[in-house]
């Protein structure tokens, strides 16, 4: 971001007209604008194309990215010979606005790159991931060049790197680092020979996304994506390290401001035990979002258990928040909010009051803002901590 401003402050200015509406005491208009904006943020589409030769590991990557086992219902079929020449969309289970497209290998379609891209409908994709399990081929390069011409982004991924490591491990002077460097150099050199000067190549294992370059791939995509699409990608990222979890928390924290303002605008029902009135449906939506992004909903936890072999009960055992591994209902959320609201420290109040951008609003509104901010912030922190504990249990 080319601004020296606090990113939180930038967020505050994001919804035009809200501040004015509140200053004019038009709380209904302010609430409507915020709600509309939150809804839009939630539905930002992201279409990711996965391409590469048959057997490269495209379908396996699509499943791993979505946290699915290869034999699960809704998973892309793997280890099968491609029979279709069309791109197959696979929505993320928790965020159907994010779609992974399993593309046929260009070789299987027998089309030149330009025609192939037209056939799969290249316009709709935000970027392409070109996968190869062996060496990148002429087809891969031609495709990349054509994608570039279409002003789209692409990323080279060398898959099944766990196999490479496994094979090298037998050698006496084995070093994982050195092996990875050799593979990377080889890919780069090969692509150079085919006409691509110093390309970036990511080494990935779909069976072990938390190792190797998958995290680097995310960082690179995050940097290249337009800012409004970054959170969409972030929220579907598997929890491959504590850093991802922290980033998710920060992204949600920026949105807290609007949720708190919404409750300050007060078009809502009162919460017993707390001196606030909130739009409970919106809060249920927000907290469900936290739980989904952290992978703490029951289906996500079950999938994680299936993928890692760590029993579901063991994963649940490290969870603290009553909102994780549970169905989030209005009743449950109100109960948790009341409990958290009573015990949440005042620390967050100061933090929250820093955000209130309009002076002269009624004290009740300020209180409502701060309370909602505090309560949601406490819930968010608890869930992030749970996500970290689950991550540790499952992968460390
Ligand atoms: N060891 C290992 N095998 C993989 C990996 N990705 C895919 N495979 C295997 O490679 C084979 C082909 O994978 P698939 O996803 O069907 O390839 P596609 O034809 O490109 O969709 C399957 O047997 C997968 O299990 C990986 O990261 N590591
Ligand atoms: Mg496939």
Automatic annotation (TrEMBL):
Any one GO molecular function term: GTP binding
Family annotation (SUPFAM superfamilies): P-loop containing nucleoside triphosphate hydrolases (SSF52540)
One Gene Ontology cellular component annotation held by this UniProt entry: membrane
Entry superkingdom: Eukaryota
Listed transmembrane segments: 256-274, 354-373
Location of the IRG-type G domain: 44-224
InterPro entries (UniProt xref): G_IRG_dom, Immunity-related_GTPase-like, IRG, P-loop_NTPase
Protein name in the entry: IRG-type G domain-containing protein
């Amino acid at each position: 971001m080319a601004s020296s401003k606090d990113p939180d402050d930038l967020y505050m200015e994001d919804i035009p007209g809200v501040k004015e509406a509140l200053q004019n005491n038009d709380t209904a208009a302010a609430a409507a604008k915020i709600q509309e904006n939150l809804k839009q943020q939630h539905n930002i589409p992201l279409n990711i194309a996965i391409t590469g030769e048959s057997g490269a590991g495209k379908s396996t990557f699509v499943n791993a990215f979505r946290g699915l086992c290869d034999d699960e219902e809704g998973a892309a079929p793997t280890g099968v010979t491609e029979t279709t020449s069309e791109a197959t969309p696979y929505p993320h289970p928790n965020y159907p606005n994010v779609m992974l497209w399993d593309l046929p290998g260009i070789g299987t379609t027998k089309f030149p790159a330009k025609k192939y891209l037209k056939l799969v409908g290249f316009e709709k994709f935000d970027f392409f991931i070109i996968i190869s399990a062996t060496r990148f081929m002429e087809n891969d390069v031609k495709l990349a060049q054509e994608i570039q011409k279409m002003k789209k982004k692409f990323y080279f991924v060398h898959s099944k790197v766990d196999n490479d490591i496994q094979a090298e491990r037998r050698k006496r002077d084995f070093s994982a680092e050195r092996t990875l460097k050799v593979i990377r150099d080889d890919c780069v050199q090969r692509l150079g020979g085919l006409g691509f000067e110093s390309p970036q190549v990511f080494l990935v294992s779909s069976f072990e996304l938390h190792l190797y370059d998958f995290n680097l791939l995310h960082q690179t995509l995050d940097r290249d994506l337009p800012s409004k699409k970054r959170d969409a990608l972030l929220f579907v990222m598997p929890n491959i390290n504590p850093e991802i979890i922290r980033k998710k928390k920060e992204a949600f924290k920026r949105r807290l401001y609007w949720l708190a303002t919404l409750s300050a605008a007060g078009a809502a029902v009162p919460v017993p035990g707390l001196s606030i009135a909130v739009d409970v449906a919106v809060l249920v939506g927000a907290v469900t979002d936290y739980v989904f992004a952290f992978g703490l909903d029951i289906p996500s936890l079950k999938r994680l258990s299936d993928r890692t072999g760590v029993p579901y009960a063991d994963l649940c055992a490290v969870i603290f928040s009553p909102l994780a591994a549970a169905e989030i209902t209005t009743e449950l959320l109100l109960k948790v909010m009341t409990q958290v609201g009573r015990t949440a420290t005042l620390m967050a109040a100061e933090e929250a009051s820093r955000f209130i951008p309009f002076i002269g609003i009624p004290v009740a509104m300020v209180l409502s803002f701060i309370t909602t901010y505090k309560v949601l912030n406490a819930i968010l922190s608890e869930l992030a901590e749970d996500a970290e504990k689950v991550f540790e249990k499952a992968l460390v």
